[in-house]
């Protein structure tokens, strides 16, 4: 099978905890006949298996230290597994470490050729794509500067640009894109989505759970080297999110989809559905319900979060002292109006919880929908607050 597959992959490291805290301790350990204490085994991966045919995409999620990067290093053959087998069949381009394949004393231009040669790309093919590589990276003024003077973001820009312009059949990307600015991250995700539509296999490690749900065909959740869930991205991401709120989820307990009463949501500006909201605009969140049974009363909690899970705001009809929503039979809509969405540019997720009249949680939707906010002002942080400068 052309593509990527792993079968029973495990990786063990040996950890020694007999660190010498002084020269005296070091000399004692060097005495004849003295044996160092045995090293302790640490399993970074345990029995990981998956198959990714050409043309399909796979997202890998998990906390830091869960084994994601170790798995990618094994797949790209920069590290050997302790046991198990892997195969990567197809023209592959990988970006798993900042500066990998770059020589610090070479210029950006020279490193493009160096990096491409490591990927097995001929010089004349690089010549054909050179301007596109430089323009996508957005570093033309610095392209003839040694990369040892580049920032981490510039490294990521150049490395990603080379990786996508060598026309791979398989693209492997680690979380290194997180060092770039939000606009470049979005540019990269747009290009990854375009490559996916063109039939390129994508293997993506990311903490951007929204992108994994939206772009990937399948997902894996790793925790301490063990696969906890595998399958549809929405179910895997939901299991991963729940693990931060509840007891750990077992490998076979990814939640099943539950339709509930709340079916969908979208945002409107001036009465029109939008995917991109200008910062500061008046926004209406439209929620669509479908009640096939009997009339009920419900409260609603809406929260806005970054893709990494950080909550920006939370609005609750129960805490606001509002009467519960009355839902009759059939379809209905509820609208929440926000006079000014004062957020900095970025991607945000709308999460929802449906409560009964006593405040008990009946439904969870994580996330229910997503929105991109664009600000014409280059604000740092999360908010774009109205302000003015005055002299004196």
Automatic annotation (TrEMBL):
Gene Ontology CC annotation, any one: membrane
The keyword Iron is annotated on this UniProt entry: no
Gene3D superfamilies reported for this sequence: abc- transporter (atp binding component) like domain, P-loop containing nucleotide triphosphate hydrolases
One family name in Pfam for this protein: ABC_tran
Cited SUPFAM superfamilies: P-loop containing nucleoside triphosphate hydrolases (SSF52540)
Transport listed as a keyword: yes
Family named by the database record: Belongs to the ABC transporter superfamily.
Protein name: ABC transporter domain-containing protein
């Amino acid at each position: 099978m052309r593509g990527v597959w792993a079968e029973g992959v495990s990786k063990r490291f040996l950890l020694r905890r007999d660190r010498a805290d002084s020269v005296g301790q070091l000399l004692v350990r060097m005495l004849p006949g003295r044996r160092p204490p045995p090293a302790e085994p640490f399993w970074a991966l345990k029995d990981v298996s998956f198959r990714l045919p050409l043309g399909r995409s796979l997202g890998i999620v998990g906390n830091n230290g869960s084994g994601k990067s170790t798995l990618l290093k094994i797949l790209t053959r920069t590290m050997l597994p302790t046991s198990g087998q892997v195969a990567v069949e197809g023209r592959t381009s990988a970006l798993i470490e900042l500066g990998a394949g770059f020589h610090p004393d070479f210029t950006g231009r020279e490193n493009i050729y160096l990096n491409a040669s490591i990927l097995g790309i001929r010089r004349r093919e690089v010549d054909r794509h050179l301007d596109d590589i430089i323009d996508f990276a957005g570093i033309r003024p610095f392209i003839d500067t040694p990369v040892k003077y580049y920032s981490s973001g510039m490294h990521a820009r150049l490395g990603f640009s080379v990786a996508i312009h060598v026309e791979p059949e398989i693209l492997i990307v680690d979380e290194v894109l997180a060092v770039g600015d939000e606009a470049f991250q979005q540019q990269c995700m747009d290009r990854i989505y375009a490559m996916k539509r063109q039939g390129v296999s994508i293997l993506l490690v990311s903490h951007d759970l929204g992108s994994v749900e939206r772009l990937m065909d399948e997902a894996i959740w790793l925790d301490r080297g063990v696969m906890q869930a595998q399958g549809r991205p929405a179910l895997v991401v939901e299991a991963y999110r729940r693990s931060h709120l509840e007891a750990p989820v077992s490998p076979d307990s990814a939640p099943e989809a539950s339709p509930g009463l709340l079916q969908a949501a979208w945002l409107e500006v001036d009465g029109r559905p939008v995917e991109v909201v200008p910062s500061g605009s008046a926004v209406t969140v439209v929620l669509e319900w479908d009640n096939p049974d009997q009339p009920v009363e419900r409260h609603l909690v809406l929260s806005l979060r970054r893709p990494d899970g950080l909550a920006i705001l939370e609005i609750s009809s129960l805490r606001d002292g509002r009467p519960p929503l009355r839902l009759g039979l059939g379809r209905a809509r509820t609208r929440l109006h926000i006079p000014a969405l004062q957020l900095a540019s970025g991607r945000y997720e709308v999460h929802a919880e449906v409560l009964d009249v006593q405040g008990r949680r009946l439904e969870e939707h994580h996330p229910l929908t997503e929105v991109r906010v664009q600000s014409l002002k280059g604000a740092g942080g999360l908010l774009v607050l109205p302000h003015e400068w005055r002299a004196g």
